[in-house]
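fyi for ur records
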Amino acid sequence: MLKKTITADNSPTLYVPELDEHYHSVKGALQESMHVFINAGLKQVQKNQINILEVGFGTGLNAVLTVIMNVKLNKKIYYETIEKYPLSADIIEDLLNNNFIEPELTKQIHHAPWDKDVKISENFTLKKIKTDLKTYIPEQTFDLIYFDAFAPDKQPQLWTEEIFQKLYHATYHNGILVTYSSKGTVKQALRAAGFIVKRLPGPKGKRHMVQAIKK
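which gave:
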C-alpha cells in the first residue's frame, strides 16, 4: 500500500513499503526533480523541437515541471512516459490535495488517456504508456531521457547495460540522459552502452548525479 510523505521542501511524494523506497527524495521531491531533470536535462537541450522519454511516470511531477518550464523555454515538446504501475484515482486525488504543484495541470496530465497522444498545451504533447521498461520498444528517437526508475539497489534489473543500450539506440546524436543515481555500477553500465558519462553535483541530500551524453 503506497503511503504519502511530505518531503523537506513541503512537496509530497509516495513511499512504497514493499521496496522500502520513496518515489522522490525526502530531502525535497520538488527540488530534486528541478535539479536533476529540468536544470541538468531540459535546460541543456538546444533544439527547438524536443522529444523526451521519461522512465517512471510516477506522481507526474517531472511532466508537470516540464510543462511549467516550457512556458519560458517555448520549445515544441513531445513527451513520452512509461509506467508499469499507474497510480490509482484516490492516491492521485490525495496528492492533489497536499501542496502538489499546479494541481489543475497535474490533474489534466493524470487524467489524460493512456497509450495515445494527448495535447496538453500548444507546445506540449503527452503520451503515457503502461508498460515494463524491460519489454518497452521505443518507436521514437529522443533528445532527452529522464531516467527516474526506483534506485538500482531496489530494482537492479532496470539499470543494466542491456537497458541502457536500448535507450542509447533510441537517442539522437548529442542526446542527453539524466538520472539522480551516480552509483558506480550505473556509470559503468552507461559507459558500456556507449554514453559519455558526466558526474555532476547532486540535489540536496545527494553528493552527485549523472548526465550521460550520446556522442
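The chain has a mean pLDDT of 96. thats all i got for now
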